[in-house]
Amino acid sequence: MMQRSDLKSRWVVLVLTAVILAGSYFNYDGPAALKAPLQETLHLSDTQYNLLYSVYSFPNIVLPLFGGLLVDRCGTKASLILFVSTIVLGQGIFAAGVALRRYDIALVGRTVFGMGGESLTVVQTTIQAVWFQGKEMAFAMGLGLTVARLGSVINDWVMPAIYQSGVPGLLPPLEPASALSFGFFITLLSLGCALALLLLEVRTDRFLAAQHKREQAQPLLHDTAAGAEAVVEHMSLADIQHFSASYWLLTVSCVVVYATILPFNNVAAGVIMGKYGVSLEVADRLMSIPYLIAACINPFMGTAVDLLGYRAVMLTAGAAALAAVHLSLAWTMVPVVLPLVAMGLSYSAYAAAIWPSIALVVDGRAMGTAFGLTTAVQNGGMASMPIAVGTLRDTTGSYQAVEIFFACVAMVGVAVGVALNVVNHRAGGGLNRVAKRRDALEKKLEAVIREDLEADSQSR
Ligand SMILES: NCCCC[C@H](N)C(=O)NCC(=O)O
């Protein structure tokens, strides 16, 4: 039976989902690129500044789980439009709050932005998993993250420039709200791409339904995460208890390892300026290195995962490399470019392995919920880390304790990775195998079971 992953238009879907997410990532990292001007204009301490990230993540300790359920129950189309509209609204409120010098409104804006932002990553990953299932999934997710991360990198370059010079006749210079308003226009671009994707999905539904009718297969019921297959069973929260041990270990790994990457980026400019005595502009450029490296090599890392497997090994090695990076930032004076490049490489290896791994250990009909739950737990880490980091920085007066803390968290990620390798090996080692070989083995197994059942019914 023909599926979405058999269609060439999956590449258009990849471009659209990537650009949609790039708009979200661009704005997520907005405060990091404007850290000093924001703190100056709104008179914020480090803790208050970091709260702009924590409030993004607080609602997401729960919301993406329901976002994922919504994706599985109502489909990707409605969820996509809902979540993109929410980031447009949130960014608008955030920019207005900063323009009005109202920290409380700015916090509300970041909260609303977060309510859409993380569930958007869930629906985007689910759409990519559905359209690339059994094909170039890790490559597609890697390329998607590349474009999204380019959003972060462009943000690091464009936001300080717009802050400095404004947009003639439109946005005044030396005003952080100008840069944030520019970010609002970027979210409108994401909305435009989401509407284009909606049209494409509707046309694909019609095409596949007609195709299935011709093949006398079951009609297409709706566009759930299970894609073009006829799905009648609905995922419910209770089904979470059937997720495997590998899934839970992947989720714990995701929360601890990402907690050493994304929250580091929020304070990277401060770490670099404090340790190496460079200006904000130079620090902003330097801090874009990890995301830039990751953006450049994500598709290659993804291809390596598609061709070689070794997902569980790769995500353990990625965590170990991140621990080394943070220790070197805490205790050595090596040129800062080295640990930043190493961070980009390890982040990319980790991201290329973790997201496709989740798609491999859960059933198709639970994909949105699984991504949602992982993202929810991940946000627990992303909500608490900035507070811990801000408090450590405010109490010790330097970033050394912060870096040692990041390294310890990464080491927990190594331990979880080792446990994952053991558990997965006992369960057949699917995560470290190539997906196509894994599919072939599963098909062989199904055929043997079917033959057994047929022989059984004939002998009765
Ligand atoms: N919007 C920035 C935070 C992204 C969090 C998201 N759940 C995620 O982890 N995405 C993958 C990545 O590597 O950024």
UniProtKB/TrEMBL annotation:
It is a multi-pass membrane protein. InterPro entries: MFS, MFS_dom, MFS_trans_sf, MFSD1. PANTHER family: MAJOR FACILITATOR SUPERFAMILY DOMAIN-CONTAINING PROTEIN 1. Residues 10-427 form the Major facilitator superfamily (MFS) profile domain. PROSITE patterns: MFS. Pfam families: MFS_1. This is Lysosomal dipeptide transporter MFSD1. Keywords: Lysosome, Membrane, Transmembrane, Transmembrane helix, Transport. Gene3D superfamilies: MFS general substrate transporter like domains (1.20.1250.20).
